[in-house]
Amino acid sequence: MSEGIFITLEGGEGTGKSTLIANLQHRLHGLGIRPVLTREPGGTPLAEAVRSLALFPPDGDTWTPLAQALLMNAARTDHLEKKIIPALASGDWVICDRFADSTRAYQSIDGVAEPVLRDIERAVVGDTMPDVTFILDADPAALVARRSQRGGSDAFEAQPMAFHESVRAAFLKIAQSKPERCIVLDALQSPDEVADRAMAHLRDKGFIS
User: Which domain holds residue 55?
Assistant: First the structure.
């Protein structure tokens, strides 16, 4: 059986990743493709436990930047070994809400040196890199209402505007450095317009007809 297709969605808080995933799932179902949907941190019971610790530290405590990066990659190791790699090996499509690019973007802003993050990523991810990464992009100031409507805030959503601006810049830098993999989508377009462009790219790559 041929290897599956690995798609990741990246972007700042409130850019519409969950909406795009739902739209892609619906459209791919129409083509007879039933993708495995997952997220990071998370995707397996152990990784979901790490997600809770990372995003909602107990008693208002905080992780150091390096500890946070290691947590994310510990969860990713379990996620890859137990869910993503077996699904791809079975020929399934996998659509993941965040992956290694998020760790590189967020934790580099927090102060972990990029070479350190790259070394950890190389050890954890290996050859299991996405075939396509859609980066949803928008001015963070334009997404304040979206973020507030979701209710509650995790350790990242609660950061000041300057942090969110740095996250956006980090993702755009990744997109510029990996043009063969990363496609930047305007997160302020309508959900259908965003999904139309994503599907058009999948056709251009020859993944669907």
Answer: 6-204
